[in-house]
Design goal:
Layout lengths: L2 E15 L2 E15 L6 E13 L9 E8 L4 E3 L16 H13 L20 H12 L38 E3 L1 H58 L3 H8 L7 H21 L3
Antiparallel strand pairs: 1-2, 1-6, 2-3, 3-4, 4-5
Helix pairs in contact: 3-4, 3-5
Length: 280
């Protein structure tokens, strides 16, 4: 009877970019079937990524990489149908790290078995995509035909490549840190604590800013009152009605500039009407 063994593990990935750092949950599920008395085995692996924190967590629900092998049937598939990394997590080395895990797992099987060519859909098999795509896969020993009359050939890796032709990366670039769930939890709590302190600092700064704005408004109002009173003094020195205006406005304590200007306007209007009535 075949023996089946399922193994599940979890870890935390920490990535950094210009927007800050991202924490990702990496869940690995390996499903293996062994045939007693036979050298054949079959299995599949899935690396599922879920965004926990960071800008990517607001826009991405997650993604996965996977592979399947059946040595009895000679089936080796290096993907679960596609290879996809969300745009906000690209160019950080995450795709290279996950595909490297796939290759490491596949290389546990018979190296003489050919793997199914990787096919890029026709829309993506463009000249502009060749350099980036070939650079990614060539590091793992997977080569693509650079040209093709129909474009289909350009979107498929070369046939006849075997597990033994695959290469693994010694290290992945961009400084991705993989840690245990416990370490990742501490990391997340520290990040939340820092965000909390930043929010408190921002609130205090906002209060200080409000106080500074209030003091500035008071100073400007004081200067405005001084300017109005200075203009009033000038008007009184030049106008025959200066004494009357002074008599009316002086008793008003803390008169506002608006009220004072309005008083001057009304006084001027009254005198103008009086002058017209006398026929001056």
């Amino acid at each position: 009877m075949p023996e089946r063994n399922i193994t599940e593990t979890s870890s935390i990935l920490r990535l950094e970019d210009r927007t800050g750092h991202h924490l990702l949950l990496l869940e690995t599920k390996e499903d293996m079937t062994y045939y007693p008395g036979s050298r054949h085995s079959a299995g599949q692996v899935l690396f599922k990524v879920t965004c926990i924190s960071g800008s990517a967590s607001k826009r991405s629900e997650g993604f996965d990489f996977g592979a399947r092998v059946d040595t009895a049937l000679g089936i080796v598939k290096l993907t679960n149908g596609y290879i996809y990394v969300p745009p906000e997590l690209r160019s950080l080395g995450l795709g290279s790290m996950l595909f490297n895990k796939v290759i490491i797992w596949v290389k546990k099987f018979d190296h003489s078995i050919e793997f199914t060519p990787i096919t890029i859909d026709h829309a993506r098999a463009t000249p502009d995509n060749l350099i980036r795509r070939n650079k990614f896969y060539s590091r793992f020993g997977i080569l693509f035909s650079p040209y093709g009359n129909t474009g289909i050939e350009a979107g498929e890796s070369l046939p006849g490549l075997k597990i033994g032709d695959l290469k693994t990366l010694v290290t992945h670039e961009k400084g991705i840190i993989e840690m245990s769930l416990r370490e990742g939890l501490i990391e997340a709590l520290n990040a939340a604590s820092i965000l909390g302190r930043n929010a408190e600092d921002l609130a205090r700064y906002n209060e200080r800013l409000k106080a500074d704005v209030f003091r500035l408004e008071q100073r400007l109002m004081k200067k405005a009152r001084s300017a109005v009173w200075l203009k009033l003094a000038l008007v009184m020195s030049l106008s025959a009605t200066g004494a009357l205006i002074w008599k009316k406005t002086w008793p008003i304590y803390q008169i506002t500039p608006e009220r004072l200007i309005e008083s001057l306007k009304q006084e001027a209007i009254g005198h103008d009407a009086s002058d017209r009535g006398l026929g001056r």
